[in-house]
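Tutorial handout. Part one gives the primary structure; part two gives the three-dimensional structure as tokens.
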Amino acid sequence: MRFDIDRFREIIDTLTRNKTRSFLTGFGVFWGVFMLVALLGGGQGLKELLQSNFEGFATNSAIIFAQPTTKPYAGFRKERQWNMVYNDVERLKRQVPELETVSPMLSHWGGNATHGDKKTECTMKGVMPDYRNVEAPLLFYGRFINDMDIQNNRKVCVIGKRVYKELFPGGGDPCGQRICVDNIYYDVVGVDYSAGNMSINGRSETSVVVPFTMMQKAYALGDNVHLMCVTAKPGITMSSITQKMRSVIAKAHQIDPTDEKAVTVFNTEVMFGMLDNLFSGVNFLILLVGIGTLLAGAIGVSNIMMVTVRERTIEIGIRRAIGATPKNILGQIITESVILTAVAGMSGILFAVMILEMLELGNTTDGIVAAHFQVQFWTAVGATILLAVLGVLAGLAPAVRAMSIKPVDAMRDE
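Part two.
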């Protein structure tokens, strides 16, 4: 089928003559495409916003901490207070080979950090260098705690974003300068700009992180460990080794291995799994609603083309009488349908992308985009292909009806 400029003008003229119906039908397709693209882009942006709360946090991790026992065991009554010790770290490394990282942590809340005449509240955290495998720092300046800091009990620290901005309002690299926390001076060696809302024992932005050994001595904590952060090796699910970890620690402290509250294991893997399942369901619902709206628009296109064919019965009969073949009639009706669907659909995609771009700009802080409210390139390509297919299908039934009209019958129609 050859498509020349005269035929294109004829098709546009036909659509213009039926502009009310064409507008209503096109709006149906426009709204369907707009809903599909806007929902997909909005869903992606919402997912990124939620995931930003867990940015830098290992998805295959768990947090172990001690609570009063809830069951009597080995002659001890329930509600017994107990604490984990540093030897528990070695026990887990030795007896649970499925673990990749076992990192102890100490914490102290309600501290005050000062630098010159500036002062801010902070949370002290004592960690080992491998803690970065659990909660990865986003270093804006300097470095993280290293092995030499641990071995030499160095008085060094890594400060969070909020602590940095309040103690050093003029900006610049604070590494090498000193801050005072609870009457102890620490040399700043790094600035952590992590913005995730999921942190262990206090948010990263208000934390002052020091070497584990230094905090043991500074706060006279002895051999105690407040909690342990662990990550599993690739291919190992944390839920499959949870009871094994609990049993190792429970045995060393004369605790019932079935006492899940006494040796609490908070499995972050479950939480991340729930989040993934939630968005899988949301994406399916978005596709269902969007495609349903698109199909409704395509049905509208088919209906308007049916009416158009009915109104143009005489015209079609005359064209058939002067030599137009069924193939010509078929091509014209389907082309009209595709043009109407494509113009409305592409307009819907363009408008949806503009709205999503505005949402993205509204979620920008300090030049950093919090979430990308946009659809992927191949999603837009897929929507375009779907539009073309729907345009052909929508025009197929009217085209078949037009082909079935006999010239004599058509010219008699009034």
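Part three, for discussion. Residues 34 and 350 are 8 Å apart (CA to CA). The radius of gyration is 34 Å.
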